[in-house]
């Protein structure tokens, strides 16, 4: 078996405690194949709570790059990927040089800094990848504090959330980008998330492009981690807001900015793209308008 050299790609912004918890859980992984190395590449987008300084102090082997607060999450993930390609992918002991040695990584792991991995999460992901073959993306399902699945693979045009099975991998069409293992072979075919998507939808687009390139996507058995601070509902669905405010929220960068949503629909949902482009905005406006009429 060839050694696994894992490049972990993370972004952060004003979540110092959560980021440190995520990194600590990463360091405490068990059951990894012999010779496995990890190199963590963190891009911080203008934190004002001391996140970069705390990471450098407590996790000196992590490569930390600070960029402006105007850099969106998807863009920061691409920067972390670029850093992993220029600085190697493997890591080592806590005192190792940031970014790890110069040998090339065998896998990239997209890891959201709000996700605390369970102790055998990486072993689970790597085992699923090994069974699926080199042209496989493995998705880790994430639960909230109540045990409900909040991030996972997705299926169909409606992007239905895939529940993880207990002892087998589940196929999916695309994925949320919170915990995603990408092999070197898949990266060579698909690359990074597309730069047209600044915040959301870049992970969904990546999964669709991977599928077209002949890549399989699997949700690993069970949940691989927990994300306890997931918001209960998107902002545009908040009860009682007016039509204008609902439209402002749904078209914001945090939800469905029209240019990026149209690019996704045009690429992946033709000939239904015009209908699917308009439908989420229409639903939000109808909900807000009916809510005001009832008040």
From TrEMBL:
SUPFAM superfamilies xrefs: Nucleotide-diphospho-sugar transferases
GO molecular function, one term: transferase activity
Keyword set, alphabetical order: Transferase
InterPro entries registered for this protein in UniProt: Nucleotide-diphossugar_trans
Protein name from the UniProt record: Glucosyl transferase
Taxonomic source organism: Streptomyces violaceoruber
């Amino acid at each position: 078996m060839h050694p696994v050299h894992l490049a972990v790609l993370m972004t952060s912004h004003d979540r110092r405690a959560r980021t440190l918890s995520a990194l600590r859980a990463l360091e405490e992984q068990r059951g990894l194949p012999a010779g496995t190395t990890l190199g963590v590449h963190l891009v911080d987008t203008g934190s004002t709570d001391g996140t970069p300084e705390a990471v450098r102090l407590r996790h000196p082997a992590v490569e930390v790059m600070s960029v402006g607060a105007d850099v969106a999450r998807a863009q920061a993930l691409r920067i972390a990927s670029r850093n992993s390609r220029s600085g190697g992918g493997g890591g080592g002991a806590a005192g190792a040089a940031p970014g790890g040695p110069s040998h090339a990584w065998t896998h990239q792991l997209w890891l959201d800094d709000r996700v605390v991995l369970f102790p055998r999460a990486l072993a689970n992901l790597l085992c699923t990848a090994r069974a699926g073959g080199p042209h496989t993306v493995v998705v880790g399902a994430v639960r909230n504090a109540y045990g409900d699945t909040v991030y996972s693979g997705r299926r169909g045009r409606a992007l239905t959330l895939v529940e993880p099975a207990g002892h087998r991998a589940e196929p999916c069409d695309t994925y949320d980008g919170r915990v995603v293992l990408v092999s070197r072979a898949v990266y060579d075919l698909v690359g990074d998330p597309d730069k047209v998507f600044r915040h959301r939808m870049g992970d969904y687009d990546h999964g669709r492009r991977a599928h077209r390139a002949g890549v399989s996507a699997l949700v690993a058995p069970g949940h691989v981690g927990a994300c306890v601070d997931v918001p209960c509902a998107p902002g545009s669905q908040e009860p009682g807001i007016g039509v204008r405010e609902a439209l402002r929220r749904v078209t914001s960068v945090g939800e469905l900015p029209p240019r990026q949503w149209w690019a996704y629909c045009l690429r992946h949902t033709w000939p239904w793209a015009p209908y699917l482009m308009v439908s989420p905005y229409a639903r939000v406006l109808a909900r807000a308008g009916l809510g005001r009429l009832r008040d």
